[in-house]
Records
---
Amino acid sequence: MTAAAAVFDTLLDRTIAPGYTRLGFGWRRRHWPADDPRPDAMRGRTALVTGANSGIGKAIAAGLAGLGGTVLLAVRDRARGEQACTEIRAAHPAADVAVIVCDVSDPQSVTACADELADRLARLDVLIHNAGMLPPERTETAEGHELTLAVHVLGPLLLTERLVPLLGAADAARVILMSSGGMYSQPLAVDDPEYRHGRYRGAIAYARTKRMQVALTPLLAEHYAPQGIAFHSMHPGWADTPGVVTSLPLFHRITGPLLRSPEEGADTAVWLAATAATLPSGQFWHDRRVRPEHYLRRTHFRADDRDRLWRFCREAAGLDVD
Ligand SMILES: NC(=O)c1ccc[n+]([C@@H]2O[C@H](COP(=O)([O-])OP(=O)(O)OC[C@H]3O[C@@H](n4cnc5c(N)ncnc54)[C@H](OP(=O)(O)O)[C@@H]3O)[C@@H](O)[C@H]2O)c1
């Protein structure tokens, strides 16, 4: 990318709407660095994608299968997962895809999924924490955790930990957390991670827990570096998916024609998973470039706040704190 293109790219990023829509994607794809994954980049490699029955997750699964990978669609509803597999095979007849049940909000389901994978696989090369949701009202899991915290943070922490033996057995495994540009609006909710205080708004709960994913990524990178596992968080821009239609109908109506396709939203996740380039672990990405973690001064936090959140989340996920 030329210096002028880099400046324009940054401008797109800071002005938000142009960069997050298909306009930004269309411009940037003409300036990708020359490290597109090879057509068979995932051959011989296995990936697990959570929330892969619809939207961006399905597009990630299709993208990785199209690059020759074995892809497991981790879904909470087997029938919807099988339907997604059928659609992926229709687009990529040689696709090696299968379903595994995993409700990310439910620790028993996460543990059962990891146990089944341990029986089925010798190693896991890529784990993509894509499952996401935006609830209309405050909801708790059976364990008493606020639902977005459970789906976006606690479930991914638990699933990652349970899969460490398989990830560690791979040659340089990659774990990707699908965050959201919405996280830029929120500071780290370290004093109230379960959102017990103040008026609950689903969009704020969503953005807070997406902020937590990004904040915890460097700590995950550090924690699992001895096992050779790299961590990347990212945001997909604004993509036209069933989740956006259902959860943000007004936003969808206003931005409709400018939204990215699910495949465009999936692009950076597929690239992070499949590129032959050696990427720095622990960074936050969008459109194949490392992006800042903050636009606003008020969202900055101290390192000890992040450490406190790490300890809280590890404990809440039922994991050793250290
Ligand atoms: N679309 C965008 O513009 C946008 C922007 C920023 C970030 N994102 C992020 O991108 C990811 C995908 O979103 P999307 O837009 O593609 O939405 P989507 O079409 O609603 O897909 C979300 C997926 O997550 C699954 N899911 C939700 N809760 C789950 C649970 N407890 N266990 C397992 N799976 C669960 C859903 O399964 P069911 O079908 O069973 O509900 C669905 O497959 C999310 O993390 C979202 O936050 C999207």
---
Amino acid sequence: MSAQAFVQNSTVPTPPERHYDLVCPACGHTMADDGLTLRCPEDHAPALLRTRYRDQEPAVSPESDGLYRYRRWLPVVRTLPGAGGTVVYRSEGLGRALGLGDLWIAFNGYWPERGADLRTGTFKELEAYAVFGRLPERPPVLVVPSVGNTAAAFASVFSRTDVECLLVVPGSGLHRFATVPGIAPTVRLVSITGGDYDDAIELAERVSALPGFRAVGGAWNVARRDGLATVLLSAVEAMGALPEVYVQAVGSAVGAIAVHEAATRLIASGRYGPATPRLLMCQNEGVAPVHRLWHGCPEARRPVGKEERRAATGRVYADELVNQHPPYSLTGGIEEALRTSGGDVLPCPGEDARAATELFARTEGIDIEPAAAVAVACLGRSVREGRVSSGTRVLLNITGGGRARLSAGMRDDRAARPVLRLDPSTLESPGTLQRIRELFPAADVSA
Ligand SMILES: [Zn+2]
């Protein structure tokens, strides 16, 4: 199999006709997509809906930019010109340094010499492009809570559209907007000074319940998962086969779940072997909710107090990996993906991640984001401990990189200016919801 082995198919239906259905893995319920649905309407335990595409085989649309090359396996009915995508190449320097002979890097970020052009420097842009493409003709205001990277990605992508969205981030995430070229007035940024990701999630939930507003839905949104799944599709096109091991730093682990789903889909098409890649998920030592759940630590399900949570978040190397409520035990969630792939979760000390950042820059020649450094460090440890052998075909997801390249020459004070800065103590007051509602006078409250 090679790049030509993916069938070429450029025919894409126009809205409202869609080239896929939504299927519930728990009860089998199948439905047409309205572009917004997040959950199965049947009454049962939580389950992540999946897409079922008309094409059983992977196909590429070579005329489409970036990730839209895989639009036949994306739940999209429109695309944005100039979209970016993942760049996959075989590593020499890092592979040699780690003792791996068949290491492939999926680079997400900005690296012009390699053709990587995700302008906010992370793979969250893949989600934003796919979510935009999935929306119906007249969408409600999309509500996106984020540590910072996801919001920056949505700000960048949605500023090139006429779709209104609300981004909710902790104040500590504002610096991630430094490379966003210019935020359109349709995109409103609200920050929570001194707040954390959970505060952003809680506020976003309340706003999403207002008429005219809808939650983008984290792992629940099939577009976010299938957008991230294009990392694997790009890799399989470049590698000519599925990887045996897939390595990624995880917060909500939406990307890892997505890669597992895409691998399952490729295997079902009959040409990609019998086994999905073993998922190696990586987190910060100290605040590692997925690691604790997977290894059955009794206190893993203990509710963590807000103060404790904020203090812990301030200590970790990669603060985008601290989601305390990852989609773990539901049907189609993290636990199922780890179990069926024979995967594992590793914690990484901050000093190892720091060393990995330097190692990557020295051996591959580009800066990487803290989360990606956690993945590099965990892969190194896995090789040293014999969990991954030297001949294994490994795909390492560099979930973000090139931001230093991108911001070179830019002034440091370009951090975004929120239209509203909230104090954590005001999040539950009705006045706060009213102020947010007033930011969107054109919102269609009948939606
Ligand atoms: Zn169902």
---
Amino acid sequence: MNEKQIKETLSQIKDPVNGQSIVNTPHLQKLEIGDNEVNIVLAYNNLDPDIKNKLNFTILEALYEIIPEANVNIHFENQAPKPENPYPHIKNIIAVASGKGGVGKSTVAANLAVGLQKKGHSVGLLDADLYGPSIPTMFGLKNKRPRVKEIHGRQLLVPLTAYDIPLMSIGFILDPEQAVVLRGPRLSGVIKQFLNDVLWPELDYLIIDLPPSTGDIQLTMVQTAPITGAVIVTTPQAVAVDDAIKASNMFRLESIDVPIIGVVENMAWFSPIELPENKYYLFGNGGGQKLAAYLEVPLLGQLPLIASVGELADEGKPAWQAEDKILSSYLDNIIERTVYYTQLRNKQSDPTRIVKIKS
Ligand SMILES: Nc1ncnc2c1ncn2[C@@H]1O[C@H](COP(=O)(O)OP(=O)(O)OP(=O)(O)O)[C@@H](O)[C@H]1O
Ligand SMILES: [Mg+2]
């Protein structure tokens, strides 16, 4: 059966409660189109029986017009609809966070995105650091501007792409001087737009590069999108670990409840190129492990301090692009474990709910 035609026909029918099209209303809980069968589940809290019968009849009649042979089942549930997911085309939203600044969130976020993409996942990268966006530089897209596309009267931003990864950053829209003056509602507005008014394609992973610490951006993020989980980045330094605990505690607040997928320890040690076996623990040793143990989450991996990581980033190439065997083995490990623990999280717990502001 022609799925597109069926959806188009149904989209002409209005939800009697909110006036939205019946295919886009949150009351639609299920629309299954099989070989010769259409199953529809609608959930309403105490819908007037006359209105319900009329809606039932309208749907049956409309579908009979185009698929008279098909078996159409419409089931009404008498309950409030389950929370809607405004981003059904994005399977996992992973926020990369830290307490302290400069520990390597953007480096980890960019390399996670590139590495996941190389492994065949579809990935997008959202730079949510409105004060210090790094993604344009790291992907060699400085001074580039996204196109605007009008769809059903809405102006939507088309992400820029590098290494087949759709990317969005405030750096593509505003000059750095303009971005620093964003405050409160305007700041939240930009974050919301980055999720709602950007043409993100179907994605297995949307990686979000957050600014350090906890603040308006993190709060807006959890109020806008169901974050599948957070990856916490730290260096081995005690101050970085302490701040990472504070940042993690925000995600774990009962009212926020975003699971932590694991910890990445960056700048774990330094090995000179001429002596790759020698490890110098410049910032102390074991901070990532300690943090992971404290939070009772896995240590996803360690990334040593490697001069080329920083140099490549400045040239617009995430380190993954360098064919450095040692470096890619560390990154590989982090990526595999991130995928594994994200899948495990999805098996073990319910999807994250968008945080509702209590007033
Ligand atoms: N493993 C590494 N080896 C060498 N240089 C690194 C490594 N990780 C990060 N860097 C460099 O350290 C600097 C800070 O990293 P990055 O920008 O990723 O941190 P951040 O946590 O996103 O910072 P901010 O809090 O400012 O957003 C960058 O210049 C980056 O290239
Ligand atoms: Mg950053």
---
Amino acid sequence: MNAEMMKQFENLFIELKKSTLNEMKMETPSLEKGDEIDLSQEDRQRELDLKLLARQNFMLKKIDNALFQIKNGTFGICHECDGEIEINRLRARPVATQCIACKEESERGEGHMMYEKRSHTQGKSLHGNVIPLRAHAEDLASVLTGNSDY
Ligand SMILES: [Zn+2]
């Protein structure tokens, strides 16, 4: 991967981090509005918020890790076989840490349940109004939580 591409990914991760942090800030007030909704609904909402927050925290770790890898020049290297991760794969899954071959191999081994889980949650959003940025982050998060390589 050339330096220019590396820079593009770095910018992408910085943006992604910003938007994730913004989302986390925006969601905090929904934990407080207890007056209009009944308690069980509030509990459910809180549970969803906590789940989302956990995924966002997980994603932030992945993003920080990717930024760290960009700094020390190991970004885009498969952590299984030390080969380069396909650039198209990185475009689609910027936080991928395995090349396609290694990813497929790990999915054959233990991925069936995870794959089902991932396709089960795909396309569903926790809240009704999904903004494009959120959709991207959610997609990424579902990829991340479906990964076996953390
Ligand atoms: Zn590999």
